[in-house]
What does this fold into?
Amino acid sequence: MVTEIREGSLEAPTRHPVEWKSKQFYDEESLFQELERVFDICHGCRRCFSLCNSFPTLFDLIDESDTMEIDGVEPSQFWDVVDNCYLCDLCFMTKCPYVPPHEWNIDFPHLMLRAKIVGHQQGRTRFRDKVITSTDRIGKLASVPVMFNAVNAINRSETARKVMEKTLGIHKDANLPDYHSSSSHRNLLRRQPLADEAKSAGPTKGRVAIFATCYGRYNHPQMNSDLIAVFEHNGIPVQVVENDRCCGMPKLEVGDIHAVEQLKNRNIPRLARLVDEGWDIITPIPSCSLMFRQEIPLLFPDDENVKKVQDAVFDPFEYLMLRHKNKLLQTDFKNSLGSAVYHAACHQRVQNMGAKTKAMLSLLPGIELTVIERCSGHDGTYAIKKEFRDASLKIARPVVNRTKKAKPDHLASDCVLAASHIADAVGDPNLQPQHPISLIRYAYGI
It folds into this structure.
C-alpha cells in the first residue's frame, strides 16, 4: 500500500489550542521528540531561512554536525533555536506548507512557545528577561512624575548603559524608549466621550474603548491622544479602558504562562463588560490585538469572555477602513505628508485583516508612500539583548537599506518600537519614528 503525502498550503490553515494545562505538555522527553521531528522537516524544506535567526541557527547546527542531519545535533543545542524565536508567527502564516490541516501538523511558533514554557518552568529564564518583560511594574515606577526624567537620563548615559550591559545584558547601543509622566495617561482617562450618537457600520458599533497598551501608557501617550483625535474627527465616541494591564505578550515570549493567565484574568472581565455595554475594543499596538484575537483564545479556548473579547477587538486602521467601506470615513485631509516609509509590523501582518494601514495612508493626497513588509528585527525585547543585538541588526538590514534609499520625510510603523529600531539603524536624526495614526492626524490638520 502506498501512502501519498499531500502538497501543503492547499487549504486554509487551522490553529489548535495550546494544551498547556496537560501533564504531557511539560514532559521533556516528549517535547524533545517533537522538536526533533519538526526540525527534521524544517531541514528538508528550508523555506523559512530568511525570516528570523531561529532557522539559520537550526540549519547551521545541522550542517556543521557529523551526520549533517538532525540526529547529529545534540538536543541541548535545540535551546539555541528556541531562544532565537520571538513568536512573530510569520513562518506559520506566510511560509510553512505543512501547517494544519496538513498531516505533518507543523506549528513552529507554538512548538517554540511550548519549549519556552517548559524552559521557564525549569528555571531557564534569565533575571534580565523577567525584569524587562514586567512592563507594568517598570512603567509605573519609571513614569512617576518625579522619576521619569531621571530614568530617561540614565537610559541615555553612556556610562550607565555600559553598566547595564555588563550587569543585565542589555546592549549598550540598543535604543530604549523614553518614559513620560503618568499624568499624561491619567488626563486621557479623565476625558469624556463625545455625546454624538454612535453609527454602526458592518461589524463596527461606532463607539470604541481604547486598550491603551503599556507602550501607550508609559512611553508614548501621544499615540493614544492622536488615536482619539482621529476617531472623534470621524464622529466616533471614544473612552479609554481603566485599570487595564499588559496584554501578556512580553510574558508569553519568555514562556511565563502563569503571568499571562494572571494578566488575562485582570483584563478580560473588564473588556468583556465594555463589550456587553456596546463598545468595540481598539488597541493601537499589533502585538496586543494579536494577543486578544489569537493567543489568549488558543490558551483559554473554553472561556466565554475570551471569545467575546476576541470578536470585538479591532486594529485602528481595520476599523477606519470598515467605516470607509460604509462611507463613514472623513476624507477632508488638509496637510500633505510628502514622502513616507511605512513598515508593516509582523504581528499585524499575521492577523489576516489585509493591508489596512497602507490603504488608509494611500488615501492621503499627494503622498509618496513606500511600504516595507519585512521584519524590523526589533521583535519585543529581542533587539535590546546583548546576545541578539547583531542578529537583530542583520534582520533589519534590508528594511534599513530601503528606508535610506527612499529618503522619506516620515517613517511610521504600527509598532513604534520597530520604527524606532529602524530609525536608529538609519542614523538620520531628522527622521523621527511615528505611529501611522499620528500621520493621519497631521493630514487632517486637527
